[in-house]
């Protein structure tokens, strides 16, 4: 059901709102709440729906069955949330100042690379809370209205909606790019029944550049704007449960949670903005921690140290599986072999399999 406020009509100015002025106010309020940018779009996503259905038909979603399960709701906001007329899209930068240099960590094969978005607090609750406050500001101005806030919490084509709201274009790596801020940001949406004026969609500016396609360690970007998730390291280290295909383990290098390579080489990220959100600061030195130290975490330590973080999504078994692969790819060392041997008889068959693979690589 759509969220609405129930206020006494006597407390509210019942005249029809000036929606153009309200849209301007919404953008100001959103900035005051910590969002870097805000845009408003309609709900038509016909071309994006065709792209989505083709992607699903080709099986590029792998084991992410939820991508297919919701059918066309993902591309039809009014089916997901009846009454939706507009979508307010927001974005929030996530790279904190002082974070260890990403390329430096990737070149240090004895360190574990965690995607920069996952180093601090999980953004979902934080952004949903801010969107709720934005809704409260709107209610304070006009009274009751229908809305629902989403931050990766429902079948939403967030990048297409943000593009239509003028916040950036979808690059050849399928990530949204903003010409003034690169691509290191989170997205969130407020579906609403308010007939707000919409913004102009953003135009694309990738040109002839193919750096993101060329750099992908596993060749997951199979063509411009085409991602085979089954080969993507973010999928392999987070979404995939069970064994990682052997031919993709060596290309994973020391990436233990997600991958940023396609963004790291993007020329537009020279304009990337650092965040002022303290909650996104790296925790437990995860912006460059040693693999052998991370591999020694007990399950209790893992759960305690990743509380409130996106890393929890991979689960303890997935965490150990990913680190085992990274240790196998690390330079041969007594420390790596000792660390792997300590888990050679792990209760998880998935962990044991990847440890055996890593030990075989270390002993060559």
Number of helical segments?
16
Category by helix and strand content: alpha+beta
State the order of secondary-structure elements, H for helix, E for strand.
Answer: EHEHHHEHEHEHEEEHEEHHEHHHHHH
Number of strands: 11
Give me the CATH fold name of the largest domain: NADH Oxidase
The structural domain count equals: 2
Report on the biggest sheet. Answer: 5 strands, antiparallel
- The average pLDDT is 94
Shape: elongated
Which properties best describe this structure?
12% strand; 364 residues; alpha+beta; NADH Oxidase; 37% helix; elongated; 16 helices; 5-stranded antiparallel β-sheet; 2 domains; two-stranded parallel sheet
Give a verbal description of the structure:
- The strands form four sheets. A five-stranded antiparallel beta sheet has the order 1-5-8-3-2, with helices on both faces. The protein has a two-stranded parallel ribbon with strand order 4-11. Strands 6-7 form a two-stranded antiparallel ribbon.
- The longest helix is centred in the middle third of the chain and has 20 residues, at 123-142.
- The chain is an alpha+beta fold and 364 residues long.
- 37% of the residues lie in helices and 12% in strands.
- The model is unreliable at 1-13 (pLDDT under 50).
- The radius of gyration is 22 Å and the shape is elongated.
- A hairpin with a 5-residue loop joins β6 and β7 (176-177).
- It has 16 helices and eleven strands.
- α1 packs antiparallel against α6 (123-142), α14 packs parallel to α16 and α15 packs antiparallel against α16 (349-362).
- The N and C termini lie far apart (59 Å).
- The chain has two domains: 3-99 and 116-192, NADH Oxidase; 211-362, no CATH class.
